[in-house]
Amino acid sequence: MKIAAVISLGLIAMLLSITIGPTHIEPFAAIKAAFGIGDPLHVDIVRDIRLPRTLLAAIIGAGLGASGAALQGFTRNPLAAPGILGFSACAALGAVAALYFGLTSWVPLAALIGAALGATMLLLISGPQKGANTLILAGVGVGALATAITGLLMNMAPNPWALSEIVYWMMGSLKNADMDSIRSCALLTAMGMLCLICIGPDLKTLSLGELTAQSLGVSLGRVQILLVIGVALSVGSGVAAAGSIGFVGLFIPHIVRMWLGADPARLIWQSAIAGAGFLVIADILTRALSGPGTPLYLGILTSLIGVPFFLWLAVKGARA
Amino acid sequence: MIRIENISAGYGPCNVLNNLNLQTNAGELIVLLGPNGCGKSTLLKTISGLIPHREGGTIWINNQSLSSMPLKLRARQIAYLAQSRQAQADMLVKDVIELGRAPFRGRLGRISADGRQAIEKAVAKTELSSFLDRKFGQLSGGEQARVLLARALCMNASVLLADEPIAALDPYYQISMMEILKAEAKSGKTVITALHDLPLAAQYADRVWIMNKGQIIADGAPKTAMSEQIISDVFKIRMNYNFLNSVVTT
């Protein structure tokens, strides 16, 4: 029942997203326009601008939510988020390297290559059967290295425009959403989420601790490999399409856990749905709050929403 | 039935277990005694396949070599109850217990009718029927220990290995836990449990393995294996024979 409410909220948010904008379009007309029916102006606005943006927000939000839930399940640590394994930082490094060399059109591919290299390094360093703590340590190390190199590239930026382009890209935005980016992001995120959903039952067993889970037939090596590949695909494709978007993978699984229960297997797809809905709403807010010529970036907004929530969680935990 | 032939095992280059040879029979409750660090937990982990043993030895579980057994098959035959009582605090008791059926679940994750029956039996044995809808983190240490025991029992495995299951429990829960382990053994399973409580070991064990420095130095019925001399040599204590024979009941 509650999950139906979450799905309904997500669908309403998507409808609002294609309705709201400088040109007001009635909800029914917006739905028709999404299918290419009705006023040609409305069809152009919905199909070329609002629908791609909405779909991309939903796909990226789903990938981030599912990744956060899977990582929190594997590490049995509520502070785990896609950023902790360094994928966002590695994908960002790939994209920043492309921007540094002026290869703007290569940014998405470079981000994916960055995420793939990060995942490979992580698997090589942590190795199979080593468990959650080793994976986190390796992830933090790989992420810190990627962040340091990103900082170095920014430090050595050839001109102020290249630097500003890098900085704006890192704030995260859906302004470049188009059907091509949606297709590639959707395919990669779907593959990633499939990996994560596959390990859901194992994550549930892992809640008994690694030793007991292994005695119940869970292969830590298999879980770890699928987790790294799944998160790298979901997060890497999101960063490639829209830049860095923080905090979604951290706080969405928390909200879902509080509202829908603590099953680590179900939490993956429930967080995917909630993450999709949240990012669509966040994108509506960025559009609504942006002033003329001063766009509010999506990554900034998700952090602005996420940090107070996180502090509230900390206070609530301390009182409990 | 378990047969252990020339088993050495340890962590890194150091051996904790040294060339062990042991055999168990179905229906026995074996209590593993020994001082801290003597290798009790390592032995239980090695038998359950969680630590690989050194080359040259073999562990046979129901006449099948452990090292050649697929992971799922091994999980179905050996129930392992870890020393640490770990489960997700906000998970319901019934969900924690059901995890014991993980090795038996099909691709869709459903629990079979037999599995449901095994869970019901385990819940009844551990007297947890009124706790099923409570969160694991809200239970006392004794109740949590029973939940995790129920998780292991519902596997219906032919071998049950329990690593210090009564540690930090009050006398009532210690005895009820030992009663359950004894009943499991009587039903035809091989039960091996590591303990530190010598009187309870003497009272409940069909057979005692006394370990010291990675070796089994005594193997037999409590009266013979737990002699005053061996207890004194291994634990550096003097044990009153009458105390060892005292019977505690609930």
Architecture overview:
- The complex is a heterodimer of chains A (320) and B (250).
- Chain A has one domain: ABC transporter involved in vitamin B12 uptake, BtuC (Orthogonal Bundle).
- Helices cover 78% and strands 0% of the residues of chain A.
- Chain A contains 14 helices and no strands.
- In chain A, α1 packs parallel to α13, α3 runs antiparallel to α11 and α3 packs across α12.
- By secondary structure, chain B is an alpha/beta fold.
- Chain B has one domain: P-loop containing nucleotide triphosphate hydrolases (Rossmann fold, 3-Layer(aba) Sandwich).
- In chain B, strands 6-7-8-3-9-10 form a six-stranded mixed beta sheet, with helices on both faces. In chain B, strands 2-1-4-5 form a four-stranded antiparallel beta sheet, with helices on one face.
- In chain B, α6 links the parallel β7 and β8.
- The interface between A and B is medium-sized, with 20 and 29 residues.
Keywords:
heterodimer; A: 320 residues; ABC transporter involved in vitamin B12 uptake, BtuC; 0% strand; B: 250 residues; alpha/beta; Rossmann fold; six-stranded mixed beta sheet
Low-confidence stretches of chain A: none
Q: How far from one another are the termini of chain A?
A: 28 Å
Q: How are strands sequenced across the largest beta sheet of chain B?
A: 6-7-8-3-9-10
Would you report the number of β strands of chain B?
10
Oligomer: heterodimer
**Content-based structural category of chain A:** mainly alpha
CATH topology of chain A: ABC transporter involved in vitamin B12 uptake, BtuC
Measured by residues with Cβ under 8 Å of the partner chain's Cβ, the largest interface is: A-B, 20 and 29 residues
Q: How would you describe the shape of chain B?
A: globular
The level 1 CATH classification of chain B is Alpha Beta
For the sheet with most strands of chain A, the description reads: none
Number of strands of chain A: 0
Uncertain ranges of chain B:
none
CATH class division of chain A: Mainly Alpha
Strand content of chain B: 15-25%
| SSE string of chain B | EEEHEEHEHHHEHEHEEHHH
Mean pLDDT of chain A: 88
Distance between the termini of chain B: 31 Å
Shape of chain A: globular
Number of helices of chain B: 10
The CATH architecture designation of chain B is: 3-Layer(aba) Sandwich
